[in-house]
Inverse folding.
C-alpha cells in the first residue's frame, strides 16, 4: 500500500462552501462521537463491580463496541436533519470506525502491556482528514464516499502542452521524456468535467434479442482525473473536484506508477491543509491509496542494490546533537574492507537557516501578542514603565497619555486565573492571518526536516549497508530535557528514516535496549568504563587494567553497537533480553545500572524543586472516596524498559519500520563483565 497526494481544485465559491460545510459537518459528527466514547469509557471504568462480574455483558450494556459506536453515529445523523444535506451514511460509519480504533487502544493493552489514554475530543483546527471508504475490488462500479474517475491518458489528452511532440500520445511515452520538458499545460481555472449522460449498451440481449443498455454514470468517465463525492441523501448533488497534476516530465514516472492502472486504486481520504494564501484559508487534497508499494526511481533502485551487496554490519549511536555511525565488514577480515565511521551533525548552513527561522518565528509570536493586547486592552495591566510615565506626567500637571497597547501582565482574579478566558478575546483579521501563516511555516519546517532525514538515511545506508543496530533510547525524555537542541537535530526522525531505508534496502535496523547493554559505559575490550554525560572521550585506562583505547565516546559506543547480538529480535516485549556476546540472557538489569546510565537522560520527569511525590500504588482509593473509583482507572502507559526490536513484517501488527534481518554469523564475540 502506498499513498499519492492529489491537489484538488476548489475554484468555484459555491463548491468551496459545500466542501467547507462537509468538513464542518464531519467534524461535528466526530466531536459528538468522541464525547460519546469518552463518556462511555468513563462509565465502563467506574462500574468496577459490573466489570469484574461479567465484562462482556457490561460492555454490551454500555454499547462499548464498534457496532455500538456506529449505531450512535447513525442516531446523530438521523436526529439532525441538516447533517443529511452534507454527509452520507457511509461517511458517518467510517468516522465511527476511526473513533473506535482510538477507543480500542484505550480498552485493550497492546503486546507490551501499554494502553492509550482516555479518548479525547479534538479541535476544529486538528480536524484535517475525512476518511473515505475502500472500493470493492470484486463488485464493479462499487465505490462509496470519495471516488476517483477519469484516466491519466484522458488527462494528458485534455491538457497537452502545446510544445509536446505529436508522437507522444500515451502516459508511458510522456514518462520517458527528459526531465524539464512540459507535458501538461493545465489552465489556472480548471474546467469541471460534466457527468457522462446518455445510455451505454451492455453486451447482453433481452428475450427478444434486442441489445440492453444502462444509464451512463461517473464510472464511464474517461476524461481528466476528477474526485467525485455524491453528497448527502438530501444534499445538492455531486461535488466534483478536478485534480491538478504536476506538469513537468520529471514527475511523470511517479504519476505513471500511481495513476496509470485504475484497478489498483483503493481508497481516497479527503484532506485539507492550512494555507493562508488560499481563499477560505484551506487547500484541499485527495490522498489516494493504491494496492502497490511506493515509487522509487531507477537511481534509488541502483543505490539500494549496491547498498544491499555491501557485506557490512554497523552500529548507530543516537545523541541529542549528533548521530554517530560505525560499520565494519561482516567477516571482520581487513581484506574485505576497513572500518568506516560517520558523524551526522548540523552543517553551518543548516544552523544559520534554523537560527533565521527561529528569529522569524519569535517576531511573529511577538506580533501576535501585540495584536492580542491591542484588541483586548481592558484585559491587560500597564507595564511598570507605562505606570511610571503616567506618574511623571501627573506630577508635571500633564494629562495621562492614551495607551493603545498595555504591556503589563494579564488581569487576573484573586486566585490567579485570567479574568477572561483567552478564547473569549477579540481577535483581529490580521491576527488570524498571521496565526495561519505562523502554523503554515511550522508545517513547512517540519516537512523540510523530514526530507532532510530521508536524504541522510539514504546516504548512511548507501555507505554502511542496511544491517545496523541502534541503542533504543526514549527520545521523548530527551525532548523534555533538551527540547531546543532535539528539535534542531531531530534524532528520532533520523532513526525512523534510517529504519525505513534499511527495510527498503532489504536489511533491518535492530534496536538494542540501552538498559541492558549500556554501550556508552563499556569499552571494546569488554571492560566497564563508566563516564559521566559531560565526558565526551572514551579512555580505557591501562593504569586500571584497561586496554588503552582512546577515542570519541559516541564512535566507540556506535562500534560496540555493531557487535550487539539480539538473542531474539522478534520476541514480543517484554522481556526480550539482549546480550553482548555469548552467555545466558541476563535475568535482570546489570549491576551498577540500577539507575539509568549517565550517558542517557534520566527517565524521570522534568526535574522539580521540593520532595518527589510518591505515586499511589494501583488500586489506591482516591482520597475522599470510600470505594476505589478513580484510583482504579488504569495507568495509560505503565513504564516498561524499551527494548522492542522492530516487529517482523509477517507478524500480526506490521509497523512502518518493520523489516527482516540477516543473522550476524561468524562474528567474534565480546565478553562484557560488570566489575562494579
Ligand atoms: Zn578497553
Amino acid at each position: 500500500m502506498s499513498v499519492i497526494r492529489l491537489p484538488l481544485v476548489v475554484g468555484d465559491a459555491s463548491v468551496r462552501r459545500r466542501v467547507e460545510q462537509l468538513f464542518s459537518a464531519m467534524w461535528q459528527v466526530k466531536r459528538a462521537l468522541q464525547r460519546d466514547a469518552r463518556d462511555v469509557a468513563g462509565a465502563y471504568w467506574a462500574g468496577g463491580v459490573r466489570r469484574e462480574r461479567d465484562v462482556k455483558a457490561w460492555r454490551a450494556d454500555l454499547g462499548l463496541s464498534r457496532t455500538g459506536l456506529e449505531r450512535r453515529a447513525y442516531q446523530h445523523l438521523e436526529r439532525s436533519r441538516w447533517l443529511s444535506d452534507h454527509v452520507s451514511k457511509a461517511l458517518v460509519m467510517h468516522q465511527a470506525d476511526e473513533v473506535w480504533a482510538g477507543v480500542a487502544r484505550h480498552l485493550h493493552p497492546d503486546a507490551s502491556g501499554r494502553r492509550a489514554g482516555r479518548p479525547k475530543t479534538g479541535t476544529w483546527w486538528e480536524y484535517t482528514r475525512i476518511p473515505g471508504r475502500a472500493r470493492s475490488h470484486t463488485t464493479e462500479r462499487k465505490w462509496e464516499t470519495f471516488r476517483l474517475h477519469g484516466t491519466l491518458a484522458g488527462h494528458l489528452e485534455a491538457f497537452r502542452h502545446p510544445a509536446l511532440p505529436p508522437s507522444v500520445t500515451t502516459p508511458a511515452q510522456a514518462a520517458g521524456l527528459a526531465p524539464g520538458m512540459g507535458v501538461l499545460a493545465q489552465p489556472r481555472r480548471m474546467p469541471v468535467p460534466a457527468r457522462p449522460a446518455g445510455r451505454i449498451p451492455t453486451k447482453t440481449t433481452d428475450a427478444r434479442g434486442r441489445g440492453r443498455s444502462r444509464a451512463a454514470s461517473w464510472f464511464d468517465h474517461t476524461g481528466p482525473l476528477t474526485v467525485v463525492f455524491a453528497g448527502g441523501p438530501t444534499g445538492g448533488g455531486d461535488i466534483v473536484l478536478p485534480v491538478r497534476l504536476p506538469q513537468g516530465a520529471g514527475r511523470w514516472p511517479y504519476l505513471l506508477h500511481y495513476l496509470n492502472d485504475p484497478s489498483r486504486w483503493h481508497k481516497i481520504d479527503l484532506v485539507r491543509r492550512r494555507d493562508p494564501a488560499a481563499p477560505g484559508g484551506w487547500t484541499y487534497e485527495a490522498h489516494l491509496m493504491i494496492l502497490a508499494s511506493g515509487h522509487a526511481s531507477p537511481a534509488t533502485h541502483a543505490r539500494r542494490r549496491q547498498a544491499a551487496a555491501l557485506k557490512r554490519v554497523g552500529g548507530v549511536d543516537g545523541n541529542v546533537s549528533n548521530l554517530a555511525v560505525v560499520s565494519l565488514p561482516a567477516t571482520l577480515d581487513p581484506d574485505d574492507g576497513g572500518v568506516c565511521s560517520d558523524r551526522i551533525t548540523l552543517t553551518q548552513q543548516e544552523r544559520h537557516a534554523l537560527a533565521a527561522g527561529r528569529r522569524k518565528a519569535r517576531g511573529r509570536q511577538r506580533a501576535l501578542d501585540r495584536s492580542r493586547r491591542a484588541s483586548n486592552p481592558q484585559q491587560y495591566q500597564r507595564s511598570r514603565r507605562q505606570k511610571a510615565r503616567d506618574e511623571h506626567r501627573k506630577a508635571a500637571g500633564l494629562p495621562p497619555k492614551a495607551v493603545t497597547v498595555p504591556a503589563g501582565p494579564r488581569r487576573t482574579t484573586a486566585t490567579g486565573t485570567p479574568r477572561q478566558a483567552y478564547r473569549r478575546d477579540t481577535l483581529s483579521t490580521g491576527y488570524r492571518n498571521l496565526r495561519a501563516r505562523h502554523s503554515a511555516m511550522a508545517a513547512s519546517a517540519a516537512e523540510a526536516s523530514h526530507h532532510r532525514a530521508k536524504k541522510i538515511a539514504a546516504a548512511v545506508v548507501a555507505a554502511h549497508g542496511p544491517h545496523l543496530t541502534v541503542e533504543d533510547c526514549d527520545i521523548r525524555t530527551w525532548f523534555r530535557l533538551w527540547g531546543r537542541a532535539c528539535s534542531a537535530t531531530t534524532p528520532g526522525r533520523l532513526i525512523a528514516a534510517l529504519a525505513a531505508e534499511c527495510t527498503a534496502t532489504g536489511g533491518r535496523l535492530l534496536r538494542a535496549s540501552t538498559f541492558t547493554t549500556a554501550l556508552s559505559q563499556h569499552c571494546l575490550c569488554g571492560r566497564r568504563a563508566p563516564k559521566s554525560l559531560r565526558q565526551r572521550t572514551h579512555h580505557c585506562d591501562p593504569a586500571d587494567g584497561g586496554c588503552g583505547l582512546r577515542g570519541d565516546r559516541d564512535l566507540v559506543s556506535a562500534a560496540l553497537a555493531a557487535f550487539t547480538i539480539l538473542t531474539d529480535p522478534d520476541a514480543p516485549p517484554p522481556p526480550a533480553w539482549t546480550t553482548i556476546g555469548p552467555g545466558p540472557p541476563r535475568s535482570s538489569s546489570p549491576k551498577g545500572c540500577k539507575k539509568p546510565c549517565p550517558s542517557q537522560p534520566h527517565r524521570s520527569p522534568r526535574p522539580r524543586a521540593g520532595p518527589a511525590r510518591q505515586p499511589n500504588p494501583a488500586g489506591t482509593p482516591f482520597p475522599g472516596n470510600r470505594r476505589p473509583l478513580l484510583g482504579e482507572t488504569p495507568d495509560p502507559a505503565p513504564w516498561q524498559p524499551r527494548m522492542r526490536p522492530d516487529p517482523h513484517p509477517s507478524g500480526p501488527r506490521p509497523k512502518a519500520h518493520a523489516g527482516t534481518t540477516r543473522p550476524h554469523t561468524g562474528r567474534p564475540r565480546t565478553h562484557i563483565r560488570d566489575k562494579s
In short: DSSP finds 16 helices and 18 strands in the chain. The first helix runs from residue 13 to 46. Residues 315 and 558 are 5 Å apart (CA to CA).
